[in-house]
Amino acid sequence: MSTESQLAKLGLFDARVPRYTSYPTAPQFSTNVGPAQFESWVRAIEPGSRISLYLHVPFCRRLCWFCACRTQGTSSDSPVLAYVEALKAELALFQRLLPEGVTLSRLHWGGGTPTMMPAAAMRDLAQAILAVTPMGEDAEFSVEIDPNEIDTERLDALIGAGMNRASIGVQDFDPEIQTIIGRDQTYEVTRNAVEALRAHGVSSLNADILYGLPNQSTARLSDSVQKLLSLSPDR
Ligand code: SF4
Q: Is there a domain that residue 64 lies in?
C-alpha cells in the first residue's frame, strides 16, 4: 500500500482541525474575551515566574499565495512603524498588570515578516519588551527571518537585542514551485542569510519547508530537503 493511501486510510485527509497558525486557534476568538478577562489572566501569572512572549508582525513585502497567516502586504514602512508604536502601547498596558519579578524564558517574533521592521524599530521594540520583562537565565529569543528581508544593519540590531535563535522561511527551493507560490528566493539567498547569521554568532537555526505545494513531486521535495540539510539546521 502506498504511503499516501495508508495516510488516507488513517483519515489524515478527512481531519477537520483548526489551523495551526494562531493560538488560541480562531474558533476560540470571541467578544467574550474582553479587557476584564485579559486582565484576570495576566494578574494570575505567578510573581517571579518565567513566561513566553510572542509578538506578531502582520506585514510582508509580498504575499505568498499559499499563506494563511495573519498578514498583509505593504511596500511602505509606515504601517509597520505605526504597528510598532501600537505594540509598545500594548506592552505598557501589560506592564501595569504584570505581577512583580516575571522574566522571559522565551521570546519569539513571528509574522508576517518581523525582519521587515527597520533596524531602529527593532531596537526600540526590543528595549520596550525588556523593560517590561527582562530575559531570564538561558532564555531563548527567536526571530522568523525572511532571507529576502534581512541585511547587516537589521542583523546587527537583532543580535544587539539578544536574538539567539533564527527560524528561516524557505518552503521549497525549486524555482518553478517558487514562481507558482509567488515566493522567489534562490538557494544562494537563503544560504547567504544562514552564513550571515552564523557569522553573527547565531548557532541555533531551523527552517520551514512545506509539503503539498503545487507541482511538488517526491524527487523535487527530496531535492529541497537535501538542499536544506546542506545548510545544517540544528532542529
Ligand atoms: S512571507 Fe511568510 S508570512 Fe508573509 S506571505 Fe509569505 S509565508 Fe506568509
A: yes
Q: Which residues pair with 59 in a beta bridge?
A: 72
Q: Quick check: is 95 in a domain? A: yes
> Total domain count for the chain?
1
| 113 Cβ inside 6 Å of ligand 1 | yes
Residue 89 Cβ inside 6 Å of ligand 1? The answer reads: no
Q: Three cell numbers at 215?
A: 507541482
Model confidence pLDDT, tens digit, residues 205-215: 999 999 889 99
Instruction: Quick: pLDDT tens for 22-71.
Output: 666 777 778 888 889 889 999 999 999 999 999 999 999 999 998 888 89
CA of 211 to the centre of ligand 1 (A): 15
Q: Of all helices (H) and strands (E), which one includes residue 223? A: helix 218-230
ipTM above 0.85, yes or no: yes
What DSSP assignment string belongs to 122-185? HHHHHHHHHHHS-EEEEEEEEEEE-GGG--HHHHHHHHHHT--EEEEEEE---HHHHHHHT---
The residue to mutate among 56, 113, 213, having the most atoms of ligand 1 within 8 angstroms of its beta carbon, is: 113
The pair phi, psi for residue 216, each rounded to 5°, is: -70, 140
Q: Distance (Å, rounded) from C-alpha 44 to C-alpha 37? A: 11
Q: Is residue 162 part of a domain?
A: yes
Residue 38 lies in a domain: no
The boundaries of the domain holding residue 160 are 49-230
Task: Residue 86: give its domain's CATH number.
Answer: 3.20.20.70
